[in-house]
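Instructor's aside before we start: the two examples that follow are unrelated to each other. I chose them only because their records fit on one page, so don't look for a connection. First example below.
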Amino acid sequence: MTAPHPTTDAPAASRSTVTEHEGTTPTMTQPLQPLLHDSVVVLTAPSQAWSAPDGRIDGHGIHGFYHSDLRVLDRIVLTVGGAEPEHIATAGASAAEAVFTGLARGIDDATADPRVRIDRTRTVRAGVLEERIAVRNALGSSVRTVVEVELRADFSPMQQIKAGLTGSEHPVSVSPDGDAGAVLRSGPVSARLSAPDAHATVDGAAIALRWEVEVAAHGSVEVGWSALVDDPTAVVGGAAPSAEWEAFAAETGDSRLASWLHRALADLQALRMSTVERPEDVFLAAGAPWFFTLFGRDSLWAARMLLPLGHETAASTLRVLAHYQGTESVDATAEQPGKIMHELRPAALTIPGEGVVLPPLYYGTVDATALWVCLLHDAWRWGMPRDEVEALLPHLEAALAWMRDYGDSDGDGFLEYVDTTGHGLANQGWKDSGDSIQWRDGTLAEGPIALCEVQGYAYEAAIGGAELLDAFGRDGGAAWREWAAELKERFASAFWIDDPAGAYPAVALDASKRRVDTVTSNIGHLLGTGILDDAQAELVARRLVSPELCSGYGLRTMSTDSAGYWPLSYHGGSVWAHDTAIAVTGLARDGFRAEAGLLADGLLAAADGFRYRMPELHSGDPASKTSAPIPYPAACRPQAWSAAAAVAVLSARLGLRADAPAGTFTVDPDPAAGSIHVRGLRFAGQPRDVTA
């Protein structure tokens, strides 16, 4: 049970109230998931600070300083001379820093030019929040003023905030720590505030920091404070930035691609994490704010897209997921022998109002196991050292066996899923919202569900796994190639739907093995896997660039001619950058360069509209009717696979192919992509510069 907020009788956001307006019917207000689109985030995993554009953190919605899955502070408000600075700009050199610039006109002179300026630099490192507040005076006389920062301890769990609620699990205490600091505690978690030269006062959960300063004429004064969090319950921690990624640079004829790559790599550096159990193995957190942890599917896809920057992140992601690979059948966690996990949390994840309760280590994913095999095969071809690959071969064999023995739960030859607990994820592919798999008339499909793209992943995994087994002298390669051939034949027979606009694969088979007929972006994931023949691949390529699926800002998750389509539906009409990038990669691999270029151009237009920090998803509204992409207001950002999509687009445009065992690195650029010069690609552990 959640305790009330320390400064109220009950969590403010959790109380339903009746609101009446003259001439209207009274409406019941209820907790709502916070919107994110107009907030600023500063982050280094596993810590993050969300604020208004001017830097103000006032407990509204997502605003606060978080570490791991806990909001430590929900109020950080700056005043200078008794008033908040008037905001004029926000900038930052990296994802870990933002500079909020404002004016203190209350202590300025009466002329038009502003002469007293406040630069507030907020920096987030793993477990640390720091602020430096510079008061700059261009007047001809000195200024005496008071700088104050108001803070408030919160300790609300992330899952509460996502549900629109607040309230700590344990009592919150704040105690002075000398004259210039305080110690905040809630259960096992603590935070130490330090503010050199300040006078600190404590009132319940509130802390006030006060500096009396004199700023000389044409001079400046800087004060600062910091918060250091200690969380002994954490299961993940931060990881150092990649020096190889810092060495990467791109110059492109289309400046949008270069700008997107620059921002994406900065964000990806801030998403690097490791687990407490395996601190040496780095992976990418799925995204901020909700998914700041290890996710099987997300971390695998992001690492796979980033292989042109080196095999190292892929190798460490493979190892950490192998560490958690299932060894027994446990219904409560969905664990099965050989299965790759879905997500890792410090405690059970409860989603209020949705009946979803996920255990701390949850295996409810149907696709991560095949994707793990695909990544191991690709990492080997990009130069993952032979001994590192060989060490993972027992895990490869277990993962392949899971596809055959457990992934196909009813023996029909396809991988499918169903939640048997009643409180797990109803859908367990990448589109995991409750309404994501539906018929063209809008009704929901009933499980067990066999997703089309999962069969493509399984085919590719079986072929790649067989190649690895052969290369390392292990048995089973021929059997897995035979298994893949049979899957390909079954898929061609069971999934295809005739249509006047051209046949297409069903998004899934339902519990009765009927073809679920909605046209979706899932079919784009089939390209490049090998499960389609040439004629089938051409039908899919043509469908992907149809006006019903191609928005001009990327690939819609659902076709506009479906009854369930809505441009702001999470999985039913929105655009996901990673989803489009997977389709772009598959199109390029199968030789459909014009179609790949069209979808890639859409992503570049969207990236430009979002100032090159691509969100988790955005609206499916057509580019022909809006001059900029419309945000999905609750989308995470940065998101690992959305950022990694920039590298996937670059790779497709350069036509990169790697075969380290054969010693070949091939570049076959798309002539339509224009000039591209890249420094810092990596193949077999060595840097490669490419000019196209």
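Example two begins here.
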Amino acid sequence: MRGGGPGRSLRFRLFLLAASGLLPLAIVAGVVLAYLTSERQRDARDTALAVSRALGTAVDAELRATVGVLQSLALTDELEPGRLREFHALARRIADGQGWRTIILADGSGRIVLNSAAQPGAANPAPVDAASMRLAIQTRQPVVGGVARGPGGTQAFAVRVPVERGGQLQYVLSAVIPAEHILAVLLRQQVPATSVVSVFDRDLRRVARSKAFPGDRPSPSLQALLAQGRMEDTALTTTLEGTRSHTGYARLPRWGWVVATGISADDADSGLYGVLGAVGAGLLASLGLAAFLAWYFARDVTEPIDALKAAAGALGRGEPVRLPHLDVAELDDVGAALARASADRERAAQERRAAEAERETLLARATEALQRAEEAGRSKDEFLAMLGHELRNPLAPMATALHLMARKGDPATSREREVMERQVAHMKRLVDDLLDVSRITGKRLEMRIQPLHLADLVRHAAQAAQPGLGLRRLELQLADDADTLWVLADEVRLAQVLHNLLGNAIKFTGPQGTVTLALARSGDAAEVSVGDDGVGMPPEVLEHVFDLFYQAPQGSDRSRGGLGLGLAIVRSLIEMHGGHVDASSPGEGGGSTFTVRLPLVAPPPEAAAATTPRVTEGAQGRILLVDDNQDAADTASALLELSGYQVQVAYDPGVALTQLDGFTPDVAVLDIGLPGMSGYELAARVRVHPNGRNCYLVALTGYGTAADITRARAAGFRQHLVKPAAPDALLEAIRQGLRDNTDRSAP
């Protein structure tokens, strides 16, 4: 898709069409200019190389001339032994005549014997350029040394000639020559002012330069070129002044010196500017002609196009499109298309308005339905919470009364009591399942995950299932390594899973059937399976067995009952543990197997079992029990009194506060849903009463959601029991409260 910037005009496009004919000419001109530029640059570099060669020849001639003078001096009679004073005078005259700094005579070991610039017999220092001295002694050939800085900061170099007598090296005769001599050689060649000529010794230290500049090294680009070690070469370099130059250099083979010449690139290219100007002027003239032709021929097209623009604007504003005859066939076709588009736009606008009205209606309905669904969800949660509270309230006294009857040991009613205990437990389980489903679907179920020894949990589940087996057999199968299996789990919820699976297996197994509970390792998972040899499941039942509220087809008597919640809760709880549960059955009459897989974890470090002294029943303890359900309060009171505790019962929170004036309880068991004052408020008032300041608070209520437990903790309750609480659970809560008080009062 193109950008939203302004489009190109017709005149511009016609101009481009005419100008495109100039493109081949421009390409040819560009190629020619590029060729000329390349040739000009090549010529400049060849010129630089030629100049470097010529100057190199001049420098080489100067050095050879110096060698020749020294060789002639070596043949004089004054150099014979015993005439060194005469030689000193001769050397001084020659040095002064040549403009040299001095002439030095060294023996065959390189020790200076005579220096023409010093008085005869004066002490002579070691040679400045020791490397060239050693080279002359080793090769016995003339050597040109490197440039060095002498006294006063002036630069000079040494030309050394070995002197042999009778085939033996007797002397090394050296001329110390100022670097200005080489500079004079360069200047005599009349180097152009825009070019730069430099002479470097074999170590690339600068001997002379046609343009003065601080430093004694070549520019980095020239130094990189010279470092390649070729005898001669050319390249584009940058001078120390920062000028781009076409550079050529030549190396003097005998001495290792380098002469480099740089010709300014701007000077080399100056001749091309006139050619470029002429070509550019021609192209501009051609473009001007193309622009005139584009303007001239565009007049016959722009007016019809303006009419089309007006029609398009009308189309955009939703107005009818009317166009005259445009006298251009293609533009007339465009006008007809605009008219059709106007008609189509009107129809589309009508359809869009109708669709928008329908969409608004649907949106309003969907919003209303969503609000109703949210209100229904809140109502459902509130209803289930209240239902659980109202159902647990009557179950609590029934369960406690049955426990008291069992404690009293009346054999005449044992069978009826067992029936009632089973039905109360079944009713409690149905209430728990309903509330668990609500918490799971609303994602409010809290898990207390910690390392769990799975074998112990399986053994306890098998033991807990014994009372419901009747004549059925329960086979517990633990693998050899079962005691090494640990998982991360909520012990209470995982026990609920096994309880539901075992209860389901017992329900659908005949009176003398067999139920199997097994634990084994399967790869990196623990596998718990519950199997039976009962009625089994056909494929259509097996497919939906874990669905919420699903029940297999039953007879009209619904002998097996249930709400279809147990297995749905099993699947949800196992998935919340990161595990998986499967069901399998060969078909009707073949029994069923439910397999739970949970990921294994490493066993936790062994911890010493902490022993806590238990408070024995019958020990002294004062209990305040407050519940507006008199049956629940009376049965709980009877249980506690039978266990040896002193109990004060109140059915009203106000009465409970009055009783505190003459009673100091160790533990207070409070209902939450009390008339006139909630259990939370009563707990706060008990804690500020002088006789209730150290009281251990236990909530006993039909409200059992996670939010209820959190609120109870915040109100000061140390434990939270959900009705109907098992008698053992209530007694254990009392014992824990008494232990806590004992620990706090210990010195």
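The first strand starts at residue 102 and ends at 107.
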